[in-house]
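[Q] Does anyone have a clean structure-token version of this?
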Amino acid sequence: MTELEYPFDSEYIIKKRKSLKRTLLADGTKRLKKKIAVFGGSTTNDIVVYLELFLLNNGIEPEFYQSEYAQYWQDAMFPSDELLNFNPDIVFIHTTNRNITNYPTTSDSKETVNTKLENEYNKFQQMWQKIAETYHCPIIQNNFEMPYYRLMGNKDCSDYRGRSNFVTRLNDKFYEYAEKTEGFYINDINFISASYGLKAWSNPEYWNMYKYAMCIDAIPEFSFNLANIIKSVFGKNKKALALDLDNTLWGGVVGDDGVDGIQIGQETGVSQSYYEFQEYIKSLKSLGVILTVCSKNDHENAVAGLNHPEGALKPDDFIIIKANWENKDRNILEIASELNILPDSIVFVDDNPAEREIVKAQIKGVSAPTMDSVENYITTLDRNGYFEVTNFSEDDLKRNEMYKANAQRAAQQATFGNYEDYLLSLDMTAVIDDFLPVYLQRITQLSNKSNQFNVTTKRYTPTEMEEVFENNNYIRLYGKLVDKFGDNGVVSVVIGKKDSKVLNMELWLMSCRVLKRDMEFAMLDRLVERCREQGIETIKGYYYPTAKNNMVRDLYGRFGFEKISEDSDGNTVWQLDVASYQNKNHVIKVEDNSSIQ
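[A] Here you go.
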């Protein structure tokens, strides 16, 4: 919904919140249902109202528990039966500098201030640990915005007795905890309040009258930023950019103005703005964002423009370049197909509002933000949080190279008449074995990102995945695939829970980038092998249909499982007799963990 994408009109959202919610709930979208506990150090009702809108817009249907006003500590440390029964999927702690209880005074010694700092931090750390032990779920904690006045003037930021200095040091301790703690995230209200304008944000009237930690008009901005973290935690980030060229990556029209006539580089303010935007796009590539081109242009002109000596982006930075005269919605669908991702994983960036509207009308779920002026391009993409980072693995760094290698594989496939000969030509080797600690972050990330090839679409928090890793009642497998074009990284995860002589499959997923490579058969072969070693006689598989995983509806059927039940919603149960199973993988060499340890 365009009204809920940045730049949005907060006043409009506040005024139309009820009708916006009705529209979202009536649009037919199947959403993840998540329980969110909000522990507030101030009034949180309106935060929850707008947070719900932004989450619905990102494919998450939330249910909320809210603590009573300023009871965040009590709820965290001494949870009620209601809260325990609620059993949240994520906990958000809404505190601000108003909740710091023991600021320094000008008469304090440095030792006294340090003690106050430690006491303040320890209170929060104790709370975080209690929440983690109780609910085993992700935690989001606000950092602290700057105080709205400076008792010591400019020295307030550098003197150990200054409130600004104290807040900065306390924030640093929060960041250190976040850096070393899986599943703990900072909601950066220090940045959001500064961007909004600290004077307006911290207007004391709203605290004194309503116990709001910010002015009312700032609440949608706050909730939007918080929603970006939550949707990222639950795997709702976008994956790729489809970028227009003319007047988007450079000023002017390369086909009319020629390469020498387009605006890019350092010579003028406008050309520098385009250069900075290209630099920003290139930096997104380093986070694992897939870059593609979708432009109405002659291919030769497009490549020439990308080879401009003053540009930051080059043709090699893009996995796919669609520069032709086809409709852009068709090109985006082809890009999605070639990348093996869903179209709603793509952000379409184009300066032309007509093109944006056509794409949004034709492809449900594609984001096409308003790109109204090159000076605002970076802010528009950045603030929308399409690629919000909550987990960052080695595979993210290598994602573009992996997709580029996939393009090479596709090119080679075209030279083979027989598909099995093509697969054999890839010289594929897989490591398939029990989880290793070094891969737990990637395994957890994959469970939250994979949609198309995930039969149960079960998600795991880092804590839950660690519990599975440490529990001998599970059979766990990860799959890492390498071929002559490169290392695909960890691409498949299988988790089954033992029940006497039966293994109940809780998770079977695979990354879309290795579809049709027989990796699923290699995983199944190894799973059956482990079952035989542990006396398992039957494997039961479960398929729960969603809007995105229809392609694996018959996965267990292809594996040779027998379907034993199906309900009216399309949920199916399958079983496999372990003793009669015969291996299906004939093209991938399989190794165990000893090959990489």
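[Q] Thanks! Anything notable?
[A] The chain is about 40% helix and 20% strand.
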